[in-house]
Amino acid sequence: MIRASLVLRSSDVKNKAANIAAKAVSRAEVGTPASIPTATTGTEETMMPWNGWFSSFLKDKLGDEKYGKLRKLVLYKPDDYNDFEQMPRPNTKLGISAKDPKLMMQFRYPSPGSQPPVEQPLTDASFGNAGDDPYDVTYYKRDTARRYASDPMSRDLEKLKLELLPQDDPRVKEAMEEFEKGPGSSPGNKGVFATGKTDYDTKGGLRAAMSTSWEATEASLDANMPDHLPEPVWMDKQAEIVAWYEERDLPVSIGGTGFGCVPTNARIARW
């Protein structure tokens, strides 16, 4: 023990041990499964070499021309690009362009392992909060699509119903007075919780359910109302559509047709 202690206390031994411990190694020298480079392409060697032996036999004996005629006579859709398989094979390539025959689509190609890592944004302005609070994912304060579809959420719709009723009816007058008072439910706690007044809600109480009020909800819905006018896809070529019918002396139909023609790049297997 004494001799071992003296050896370990030697500065030469310490330096050699430190150099060995701090030696840098490459990925190839580690030898762990993680050091093995990942595959960027799938195997092109079939795992079922016996598959298709009968078709190969017929093609070899009959020739390409007779074999093609036999396939069209016997098989249903013999030229199906996926061969009626639910999952395409790794080596299946599909053309997605009528102009460029080299533009192909292949299953899991490029492979996910060869792609750069996904960039996930920390904030998203589409949440309706301008990206200032990534944890605020409330939807009711910007749900303008269902604003007028639910009676409790639509004061304008309720007001329109009351205006269509006889105004001299006492029941209508009473309902109008109640309507003018506004909703008495859910007034909100004004940001005062059991632990005290909150300091994180700066948008009128919409951050927490207990502090939400009707006034703040209506104001938020007004701010998120859409201000665009949707148009059909054929609006830009309506003159061309009318001219097509007039040239053929046909009555002009409403709107544009031709949606049954699926483009080539849309006929891609949904992987």
What would you say this structure looks like, in words?
This protein is mainly α and 271 residues long. It has helices spanning 2-9, 11-21, 27-30, 53-62, 64-74, 155-163, 170-181, 214-223, 238-247, and strands at residues 93-95, 104-106, 192-193, 196-197. The strands form 2 sheets. The protein has a two-stranded antiparallel sheet. It has a two-stranded antiparallel sheet with strand order 3-4. Strand 1 (93-95) and strand 2 (104-106) form a beta hairpin. The radius of gyration is 36 Å and the shape is flat. The relative contact order is 0.07. The mean pLDDT is 75.
Calculate the mean pLDDT score and round it. 75
* Percent of residues in helices: 25-40%
For the termini, the CA-CA separation is 68 Å
Strand order across the biggest sheet? Answer: 1-2
Overall radius of gyration: 36 Å
Shape: flat
> Which strand-content bin applies to the residues?
under 5%
Q: Helical stretch count? A: 9
Structural class: mainly alpha
Q: Sheet bearing the most strands, described? A: 2 strands, antiparallel
Write the SSE topology.
Elements: H1 2-9, H2 11-21, H3 27-30, H4 53-62, H5 64-74, E1 93-95, E2 104-106, H6 155-163, H7 170-181, E3 192-193, E4 196-197, H8 214-223, H9 238-247
Antiparallel strand pairs: 1-2, 3-4
Helix pairs in contact: 4-5, 6-7
